[in-house]
Amino acid sequence: MAREIGKAGKTLSRKLWRLAAVIAGFGLGVWLLVKLFVPWMGALALPLAFLAVVRLLEDKDVEREVVAKARGYLGESQVGRILARLPLGWRVFHDVDLGGENADHVVVGPPGVFNVEVKNYSGPVEVRPEGLWVRGSRRDDLVRQAWRQAHKLQELLGVEVQPVLVFVGRRLKGEVGRLPVLGEEDLLSYLKAQPYRLAFEEARKLMAVLERRVR
Fold first, then answer.
1. Cβ 82 vs Cβ 187: under 8 Å
2. What is d(CA 117, CA 142) in angstroms, rounded to the nearest whole number?
3. How far, in Å, CA of 7 to CA of 53, rounded?
4. Packed helices 140-157 and 200-211: angle between N→C axes, nearest 10 degrees
5. Which of 118, 128, 94 minimizes the C-alpha distance to 168?
6. pLDDT tens per residue, range 90-125
7. Containing domain of residue 20, as a range?
8. What is the pLDDT of residues 56-74, one digit of tens each?
9. What angle in degrees, to the nearest 10, is found between the helix axes of 60-83 and 45-58?
10. Do the Cβ atoms of 157 and 202 come closer than 8 Å?
11. What are phi and psi of 11, to 5 degrees?
């Protein structure tokens, strides 16, 4: 089993807890307002607070925010569990700080360094050499994100970094240009099939740098 550094989805988990605290605080605020300013409705304070929270969650923007973060967390956790099955000698770094953003998973093994960016979207995903489509819309931004993070890691480590874009919950195996786009079940076979090119001593130095960057 690969050694893991950090916890998969940690950043999104923190954001979800903060969002939950804000929503709970909103409900508490409604409860206090009813108790303080409409004391004769005290028995209804708790049901009214609950109703206010439900209505808040029905707001499209709030619902979208909660669902996006929850799906992102579940996706990163799922891919993290899969990467943990890599053989001994591999290292998996979760939530690597790149300055202003984080890499979901950075994998170091005999074939080199890989930046694994995870997406957990509903709807169809289509991979073509000339582009990526999600739910019928072209998503060049996802391709640019994967390469941007790989370039940041390359500047940090001083070695070539291969980005990999992984979509959870589907079978995919293609490339957009030189960017591999895979389903999570094909990720391990892709990584292990790459030719060995990283010496142990060089890998050890890279791991030491990455370990200091784990959030």
1. yes
2. 9
3. 30
4. 110
5. 118
6. 999 999 999 889 999 999 999 999 999 999 998 899
7. 3-211
8. 888 888 888 888 999 999 9
9. 70
10. no
11. -65, -45
